[in-house]
Write a structure and sequence with these properties.
The chain is α+β, with helices and mostly antiparallel strands. The chain has seven helices and eight strands. The longest helix has 9 residues, at 45-53. The radius of gyration is 21 Å and the shape is elongated. The protein binds zinc ion.
Amino acid sequence: MAESTTFNRVVVGSTPIGLTKFYMSLNRLCLVLNASYEAINVTSARRALTLVFKGAAVVEEVSAFTIRAAKINVPVPSVVRLMKYRRMPRQNRAVSRKGILLRDGGACQYCGARLPSGNLTLDHVVPRSRRGPSTWENLVACCFPCNNHKGNRTPQEAGMTLARQPRQVSLHARHKLLAADSRAWDKYLFA
Ligand SMILES: [Zn+2]
């Protein structure tokens, strides 16, 4: 069913709002906690509500926003918690191109050039051909010329130096990077 027919009237507090604001409410960021209360991801309120309606998650914190669906006001969640514990191997924690580029300040980690994201690629410090993993610790922002020059070599072999050792960015830092506004997240985020 299309959302426009499901949610035919939209209310923030007691004030009806336009559809644009309605969709913005659903695109607000929502923190996802594991069943153990450990923060594991950030998603849209829309996806978080889907998890709640499917019975896969419960709402832990709500935002100031509500949407009106079938004559009931549904608060837009800012934190949800999964009902079932999900095993999260450390390496798989939401490594993303956007996250790597943000962490590295949009600068090539070899020559230091600050470039628009379209002019940057991700470099495997230990090349994939040598079983270098796709992890926070082995991926860096890199310009195309440096990436070509490095090829299938380690930085040492190519005589290149990393600006800094790549590390996993904590959820707390990513939360800041995403400039999310929710104070409600703070008590779930450590580091
Ligand atoms: Zn470069």
